[in-house]
Design a protein that fits this description.
FAD/NAD(P)-binding domain; 9 helices; 3 domains; D-Amino Acid Oxidase, Chain A, domain 2; 399 residues
């Protein structure tokens, strides 16, 4: 088919879970001609994710749990301070990155298939090269597919092309990220290791400056073992891989393992921009800076936002109004749902990067003695204040 000769109701750039979910819900709400383009030749591969996720939002998005893409369910999470103080929390309190560990390549394909069942078309190995504008409105994308240059026009464009989104920059929605708002990540999949596979594990402190080390179970003796480090904390003396290698070398249960896979990448930990829309264009997921600044996790937030994006996209196209003003309905709905927590966690991230190992030891020590009903930034600070009030003086504006 000569897609460049067609005019679509909706064009989505990026076939990750957020792109597929946006397209799916636009189709479920009445749009007939929807195209998703993906620069890679295979949806979901290569995997650039630690793969931890809550399952709490599956019902909301009409996703059936499947052993095909859920590799391991966990009871909760264990947090460790540099001195080895340990805090165990149940999965219901642990946040959007705890509950299950996915096979992301399979999960991404499944989300695309759910969209395809609603009539959504996909075009692989197709890269966006620029936006097409008529006046102040975006009306299409310049694309390249296996060396062929062409244009794809649509009533509305959605950028779902990740935290390094070109669509967002071409649309004038934001500029480049500051290094303090980028986490550089490195991860192994290790086999033949000894650890408690009933929990995900998070190690705080100087093992991963400005971030943390994670262990996400993929089975009884295998796991994703990785870390994220704030890019501004890397002074050139060590790489993210070297930090992770040093951590593994200090843990006998991990040291004996064999790496069967490795992945590197970046994650945005910035607060959401003032707007994620302009005339004819919406951003979703990582492209909309929807990643949790504390955890670096974005699947749950992004897919909740994508459902809203699909619903509003359908309404906008059907009413013939894809102006920034009309798309503000999308802004209003997702911000009411997600923005307060994102901003609070961004401020907490800015403070947390200033903590040293001794302070992390005190935080975990204090929280072990507190009955937490909810693991929020506010609850953590109040819990720490009971035992080490001097630790939270600089955080008082967040209480």
């Amino acid at each position: 088919m000569k897609h460049e000769e067609e005019h679509y109701d909706l064009l989505v750039v990026g076939a990750g879970p957020m792109g597929s979910t946006t397209a799916r819900y636009a189709a479920k709400n009445g749009l007939k001609k929807i195209l998703v383009i993906e620069k890679r030749q295979e949806i979901g591969s290569p995997v650039r994710c630690a793969e931890g996720v809550t399952l709490a939002f599956f019902d909301e998005l009409e996703i059936e749990e499947s052993d095909d893409f859920i590799r391991k369910k966990v009871k909760g999470a264990k947090l460790y301070s540099p001195a080895g103080n340990e805090l165990t929390i149940g999965k219901d309190m642990a946040g959007d990155e705890v509950g299950a560990v996915l096979e992301r390549d399979v999960f991404d394909k499944e989300m695309a298939m759910l969209a395809a069942e609603e009539g959504v078309e996909f075009m692989l190995r197709t890269q966006a090269k620029g936006l097409i504008k008529e006046g102040d409105k975006i009306v299409g994308v310049k694309a390249n597919r296996m060396g062929e240059e062409f244009e794809i026009r649509a009533s509305l464009i959605v950028g779902a092309d990740g935290f390094e989104s070109q669509i967002g920059r071409w649309g004038g929605i934001y500029d480049v990220l500051k290094t303090k708002n980028i986490m550089t990540c490195f991860q192994y999949r290790l086999s033949n290791i000894d650890f408690d596979s009933e929990y995900t594990h998070f190690y705080l402190g100087s093992s991963a400056p400005g971030g943390y080390v994670w262990i996400f179970p993929k089975g009884e003796d295998k796991a994703n073992v990785g870390l994220g480090i704030q890019l501004s904390q890397l002074d050139g003396s060590k790489t993210a891989k070297e930090y992770l290698d040093d951590f593994i070398d200090k843990h006998e249960g991990l040291k004996k393992g064999q790496a069967v896979d490795m992945v590197a990448g970046g994650v945005s930990v910035e607060h959401p921009p003032d707007s994620v829309c302009t005339n004819g264009l919406m951003l979703v997921g990582d492209a909309a800076r929807i990643v949790d600044p504390i955890t670096g996790g974005g699947i749950a937030n992004g897919m909740k936002q994508a459902k809203i994006a699909g619903e509003i996209a359908a309404e906008a196209v059907q009413k013939g109004d894809t102006s920034k003003e009309f798309l503000s309905r999308y802004e209003k709905r997702w911000r009411e749902r997600l923005e307060d927590k994102l901003w609070r966690n961004y401020m907490a991230k800015e403070k947390a990067v200033q903590l040293d190992d001794e302070q992390y030891d005190k935080i975990i020590d204090a929280l072990r003695d507190v009955e937490l009903e909810k693991l929020s930034t506010e609850a953590i600070l109040k819990g720490v204040a009971e035992k080490y009030p001097e630790l939270v003086e600089s955080f008082e504006d967040m209480l």
